[in-house]
Design goal:
The structure holds three protein chains of three kinds.
Chain A lengths: L5 E12 L6 E12 L4 E5 L5 H9 L6 E6 L2 E2 L5 H8 L2 E4 L3 H4 L6 H14 L4 H14 L4 H4 L9 H15 L3 E5 L7 H18 L2 E6 L2 H7 L2 E6 L2 E7 H6 L4 H8 L14
Parallel strand pairs in A: 3-8, 3-9, 6-7, 7-8
Antiparallel strand pairs in A: 1-2, 1-4, 4-5, 9-10
Helix pairs in contact in A: 4-7, 5-7, 7-8
Chain B lengths: L3 E13 L5 E13 L3 E5 L6 H8 L7 E10 L2 E2 L5 H7 L5 E4 L13 H12 L5 H14 L16 H12 L6 E5 L7 H16 L5 E5 L3 H7 L2 E6 L2 E7 H6 L4 H7 L52 E2 L5 E2 L5 H11 L1
Parallel strand pairs in B: 3-8, 3-9, 6-7, 7-8
Antiparallel strand pairs in B: 1-2, 1-4, 4-5, 9-10, 10-12, 11-12
Chain C lengths: L1 H7 L3 H23 L17 E4 L1 H6 L3 E3 L4 H10 L2 H13 L12 H11 L11 H14 L8 E6 L6 E7 L3 E3 L7 E4 L10 H37 L1 H16 L2 H12 L6 H11 L2 H15 L2 H8 L4 H37 L12 H10 L2 H4 L6 H25 L6
Antiparallel strand pairs in C: 1-6, 2-5, 3-4
Helix pairs in contact in C: 2-8, 2-17, 8-9, 8-11, 8-12, 8-14, 8-15, 9-12, 10-11, 11-14, 12-14, 13-14, 14-15, 14-17, 15-17
Classes of the chains: A alpha/beta, B alpha/beta, C mainly alpha.
């Protein structure tokens, strides 16, 4: 599964909001290179700039400075057509499933969009139906019960699974998962993570997790980036970063999380 | 045996919807919290844990209605008191409650000290501002909060500081029981730790006698409370000490819940997380048998016949399942 | 969606507003089906006929069967109606001036007053300070009172065309009545006539219809412009936003009504049809809709569902139409209702200043107010010419605002309670 080719890399990527006295540097000259097939996690507390970075990677907001390279080429997504082409390669799952869907559009419409994006807009209806059924059964949802329903009629876990079905249809090369499990129950979390990992081997994509949960990062990823105030303070393999942290910030972050087998030291606050 | 501070017997409360349907969100729940002890309540969202927290105060407002059972705080039965009396004599002095978004309780246009004045004057009319200030300052310092906070506006404080301020205020009249419903879920790990430390301090310094702590984060619950009670579809499904509940669960649901814990500890990467298929039952129309039957791996035909009662198990534990505890443990061992 | 409609119709305020508004609209639609007179037809000679039933005198004398009804009060009422309060006051003045104690005179008791007058009045007696004109007035008064208490009937005579002599043809007794149903010509004027002698009710119904149409056109124009500019400006941001915001701010600082007056004035009386006025009102009142829509769109454009739509490769037009517009639709509907209501008020305001639609084609509520004001209905106390108009304007405005707050309660859960 692992290969050495770099799929997404960045040099001096920066995002500045506002100007003058109100200038805020959300992401401050970060460098990274994500290898194809690896599971990557970007861990940070709220306000660390991880979501801003994710939006830049997705091309939803522009970078203030720096370059992003996709598959070795400088990424150019100035026109709508270029963006559309880029979004065939990179997709996302957002944190709050309840606000991720347009509440006025039905579930089939959401899935049909994906088929259309993959060039299946002119497929006969039977074929589209078969594709949607396949995608839903991949995430353990019964498509025939979902037609004519709206996404908000499903539970949080089901909505997040529908999101994965969407990615299944789109087959992107990179999937940015922005806190995909933080709003859903612990028992559904395992299901979502299992499905994401199954999807990874099914379509051979590179998942990037954006999370504040250092436990989740350790559980899922090969490579972990720790982000603090817009900068990467530490990165490396998951075992290295989480079990043998070098930076004080990473150690503090680990120390502040309640654990099962180690004493939670409340005196260090 | 230590004195029981909070005792709840067979408490049932329900929501009445606009369409006159009853939803029994808390269904015959009994619990006991002794002096100096803390009880954790865990469960998926919608299992009734937050409703239980609200019901424990004895203060009901539509659409939540009291149905049956009793609540005894420090040998005083508070069931059936009218809401005004509960507000005057129970809330703040006997029981305090902190919801998840407690920090939003602060009025952004008034200083923290004005907020505290309101709280105290509601219970002790006639108290002077100097006395309030002295009281607040003493309590804040005891809890390690700087006294300057008292003169600040809420916008000048961070989320964690606001949350701690509200908690310190809610225990300013030294209630016997503190009910905390996800007090730290909206916060960063660092702020969460500070909030938790403060709640622990309240117990250690004897400001409160007992703590009821509600959260869906099991590692946190394990580190905070002495006992854990797991709820499912409005009912207590298992209870026992925190240690036993996490490392030796009896009920299949508890087992799965504990199997879904993720903490950054060595060896975790090789563990397969437990997943529970399906969704909890609709409480408008709960199934007649065991409420977990639909999602249970070990379901038997008998499970769906009649409702399952809470069974006594070893070491003062209880669980709601027809299968004997030894058989369940054996099955779990076999799976590994 | 269905749920939302059910909720809307559970809101008391909305229901009351909706009921009043529907009543007005239904009246506007149904009234012409029964009474289809042209609203601007001049019915009467003379202005400001009071509300009432007008019975044709010729018909009631000539055609109808007469019935005899013996009613006790008839004489007293007839006399009472003939003797107006001014006459009574002058009679009192003369009588007291001639030494009758004031305590003995009761001006309310018509029969006793006439009796007293009959016994005491003498045209040759001059009071101190009495002019000839005053004397003549008293003499006329006495003459007109002669026969008031008489019991014989009125004689109808026919004139012989050749000789010019009169022949008695009929006698109308004081106890004669006609059945109004047998009189072929009568006219009910529930709100009387206006200064031009037009039926106020028919005019009012027609005016309400025209004003509602003006409001609808003005509201639609304003909401469409505001919505489009707000959507584009809020979603696109950057330079486009700056330009649109600049234009919007420009319109914000120029008072809308002043602008409206200037535009109406420059169009000129002859060019101002009702439709033109409606469009002009719409063109000057889109500013607040644009600003509000822009603010809503800005808060929506960074939502995850919009991001997801972008990632699905949808174009900007599609995102605006499908991912933004439905979310602000309820808001836009509320803005539309307010715009309609303020459009009606703006028309009334313009017309009262004489800058409304030209007066020859259709009446509007504003024009009716303008006519009533120019012909001094308010000074003459002819309330029926202006008060019903004010009431209709107020009811339209009130019902629309009620519907608006009712909708607000449904769409904005923080206001429910």
């Amino acid at each position: 599964m692992k290969s050495n080719s770099v799929i997404l890399s960045g040099k001096g990527v920066t995002k500045v909001f506002g100007f003058g006295a109100h200038k805020t540097v959300a992401v401050d000259h970060v460098d990274f290179s994500f290898r194809q097939g690896e599971v990557i996690s970007i861990v940070g507390e709220s306000g660390s700039g991880k979501t801003t970075l994710a939006k830049m990677l997705l091309g939803l907001i522009s970078t203030s400075e720096g370059e992003i390279h996709f598959e070795g080429q400088l990424r150019d997504i100035r026109s709508h057509k270029q963006k559309k082409e880029y979004w065939k390669n990179i997709q996302a799952i957002f944190q709050d499933p309840f606000s991720s869907y347009n509440i006025f559009r039905k579930i089939d419409a959401v899935l049909l969009d994906c088929i259309k994006m993959r060039g299946g807009g002119k497929f006969p209806y039977e074929q589209k139906l078969a594709l949607m059924r396949e995608a839903c059964s991949f995430v353990n949802l019964k498509f025939d019960e979902l037609t004519n329903k709206y996404p908000f009629e499903l539970s949080g876990g089901q909505q997040q699974r529908l999101m994965i079905a969407r990615v299944f249809l789109l087959k992107p090369k990179i999937l940015l998962a922005d806190e995909p499990t933080s709003m859903i129950d612990a028992c559904s979390r395992a299901t979502i993570l299992d499905m994401l990992m199954a999807l990874r081997s099914e379509i051979g994509m590179t998942p990037i997790f954006i999370t504040h949960d250092i436990g989740l990062a350790y559980y899922v990823s090969d490579t972990v980036y720790i982000m603090e105030r817009g900068k990467f303070v530490e990165s490396g393999s998951a075992d290295e970063v989480i079990l043998r942290p070098k930076e004080a910030y990473t150690r503090r972050l680990l120390n502040d999380v309640p654990k099962l087998h180690e004493e939670w030291d409340l005196s260090t606050v | 045996m230590a004195k029981v501070v909070l005792e709840v017997n067979e408490l049932t409360t329900r929501y009445i919807t606009r369409f006159r349907e009853s939803i029994y969100a808390v269904d015959h729940v009994s619990l006991k919290v002794e002096s100096g002890k803390s009880l954790g309540i865990a469960g998926e969202s919608g299992c009734g844990k937050s409703t239980l927290a609200l019901s424990l105060m004895g203060y009901y407002f539509a659409p939540l209605h009291y149905t049956s059972g009793e609540i005894i705080v420090d040998e005083r039965n508070i069931t059936g008191l009218d809401p005004d009396e509960v507000r005057k004599t129970i809330l703040g002095t006997e029981i305090s409650y902190i919801p998840q978004a407690a920090m939003n309780a602060l009025n952004p246009t008034r200083r923290v000290i004005n907020f505290i004045e309101d709280v105290i004057q509601a219970h002790r009319p006639g108290i002077t501002r100097t006395e309030v200030y002295a009281m607040a300052k003493e309590r804040f310092e005891l809890l390690g909060l700087p006294a300057e906070v008292l003169h600040k506006y809420p916008v000048e404080l961070s989320g964690g500081m606001k949350q701690r301020t509200v908690i310190a205020t809610s225990v300013i009249l030294s209630p016997k029981v503190l009910i905390a419903d996800e007090p730290s879920s909206a916060l960063d790990v660092t702020s969460q730790k500070m909030v938790i430390k403060m709640v622990m301090d309240l117990m250690d310094k004897g400001i409160i006698k007992s703590l009821v702590f509600i959260t869906h984060e099991l590692p946190l619950l394990y580190n905070v409370t002495d006992d854990i009670m797991v709820m499912y579809a409005g009912q207590v499904i298992e209870k026992g000490s925190a240690q036993e509940m996490v490392f030796d669960p009896i009920h299949p649901y508890t087992k799965a819940l504990m199997g879904s814990i993720i903490v950054p500890e060595a060896g975790l990467r090789n563990v397969k997380l437990a997943a529970i298929p399906g969704t909890p039952p609709n409480l408008k129309n709960p199934p007649s048998g065991c409420r977990f039957a639909e999602r249970c791996k070990y379901v038997m035909p008998e499970c769906r016949v009649a409702s399952v009662e809470l069974q006594k198990a070893s070491e003062g534990r209880a669980y709601r399942c027809l299968i004997p505890e030894e058989d369940l443990r054996k099955a779990y061992k076999h799976e590994k | 969606m269905k749920h939302m409609f059910r909720q809307i119709f559970q809101s008391g305020r909305f229901l009351v507003g909706f009921a009043i508004f529907s009543a007005i609209v239904l009246t506007v639609v149904i009234y012409p089906l029964f009474i289809n007179d042209p609203p601007l037809e001049i019915l009467s000679r003379g202005t400001f006929l009071a509300p009432g039933i007008y019975v044709n005198v010729y018909d009631s004398v000539n055609f109808s069967t007469r019935y005899t009804l013996l009613l006790d009060e008839a004489v007293a009422r007839r006399v009472g109606a003939r003797l107006n309060p001014d006459d009574r006051a002058t009679m009192l003045e003369w009588l007291t001036g001639n030494g009758i104690p004031e305590a003995e005179i009761d001006t309310a008791d018509t029969a006793a007053l006439l009796e007293l007058w009959h016994n005491n009045f003498d045209s040759s007696v001059r009071l101190p300070g009495m002019t000839n004109a005053d004397r003549n007035y008293y003499i006329r008064l006495t003459t007109s009172l002669e026969g008031l208490l008489a019991t014989e009937g009125a004689i109808v005579a026919a004139q012989d065309t050749a000789t010019g002599g009169l022949t008695e043809t009929d006698v109308i007794n004081q106890t004669d009545y006609v059945n109004i149903g047998e009189v072929p010509n009568f006219r009910v004027l529930p709100l009387g006539t206006d200064n031009f002698g037009r039926d106020v009710l028919t005019e009012l119904v027609s005016a309400a219809g025209v004003s509602l149409t003006i409001g609808l056109v003005a509201g639609t124009v304003a909401t469409t412009i505001g919505l489009l500019l707000g959507l584009v400006s809020g979603y696109m941001g950057g330079l486009i936003d700056d330009v649109i915001l600049f234009i919007t701010n420009l319109f914000t600082v120029i008072p809308g009504f002043v602008l409206l007056i200037l535009i109406s004035f420059s169009i000129g009386q002859e060019q101002r049809g009702a439709f033109t006025i409606a469009v002009v009102i719409g063109l000057t009142s889109w500013v607040w809709t644009a600003r509000a829509v822009r603010a809503q769109v800005i808060s929506l454009r960074n939502r995850d569902h919009v991001n997801l739509s972008k990632l699905s490769g949808h174009s900007i037009a599609y995102i605006l139409a499908m991912d933004i517009l439905p979310y602000i639709a309820s808001y836009v509907v509320m803005a539309l209702i307010l715009q309609i209501s303020s459009g009606i008020l703006a028309e009334a305001g313009l017309s009262i200043l004489g800058l409304g639609p030209r007066t020859t084609e259709v009446p509007t509520l504003g024009l009716m107010m303008n006519w009533a004001m120019i012909y001094q209905a308010h000074i003459l106390g002819k309330w029926w010419a202006y008060f019903p108009v004010i009431l209709v304007i107020a009811l339209i405005s009130f019902s629309m605002n009620l519907m608006n707050t009712g909708l607000d309660q449904v769409f904005n859960p923080t206001l429910r309670g």
